[in-house]
Design a protein that fits this description.
The complex is a heterodimer of chains A (about 120) and B (about 140). By secondary structure, chain A is α/β, with parallel strands linked by helices. In chain A, about 35% of the residues lie in helices and about 30% in strands. Helices cover about 35% and strands about 30% of the residues of chain B. The chains are: A alpha/beta (about 120), B alpha+beta (about 140).
Chain lengths: ~120, ~140
Amino acid sequence: MDLGLDVKERNGWAVLSVQGEVDVYTAPQFREQLIQLVDQGQRQILVDLEGVEFLDSTGLGVLVGGLKRVRSHDGDLALVCTQRRILKVLEITGLTKVFTIHDSVDAAVGGDGQG
Amino acid sequence: MDCVVELEIPARPEFVGIARMAVGALAGIRPGLAYERIDDLRIVVSEACTSAIEGLAGGGVLRVRCVDGPKSLEVRIQAPGSAFESAFPINEPDPEADNFRISLIRALVDDADLRSSGDHTELCLVMRREAASEEDGEGALPA
């Protein structure tokens, strides 16, 4: 089971696209990537969950940990998610009130849809 | 008639996906569980296995026993010792993840019950099937 992680820069945001299943096996890669981004000085991080096929509490813990880490540097971490199955998990755990959730990367970064 | 499927996996993170996949596939054989509820069950199985793995730390074997009946699907996940402690927070190595885990387990299955025996603990999860409707065709995966 592979986890795809891809980082691009868009309008000052580091956009981390996640693909595959996020669980206890793959979450360490995800966590490490977020830590690396913050350590590199990224303060505006957008996690694109549109390619995520499965997410459990381990993945939620990684997202919350990332948010805390970047906020401790006066930054922010937002999400892109329109998938009902992922939104349901965020709703049950109350995290829809914690994260800003966008419908698309373009909507989040205010871009023109290119690149 | 009830169908029983049993699976044993090493209590290691890389095997959680196998338990999830097997239970999800079984849940779709009979009608009465919509796709969304099967997704819910996959999440709860993942939560339960993860909890046991964290509790065991040193490894071991998880036994996943599914009893699939016309009215409900019961999934029993059995682990040695008191491996499910983190699912029911006696101690909390990662309070955030554990709170999320409890919320998800409570919200996504119809019943969740922890049973303790001499040398093992067992988390019993129940999903009740809705009465099948010929019109909606919802629930079962294609044969």
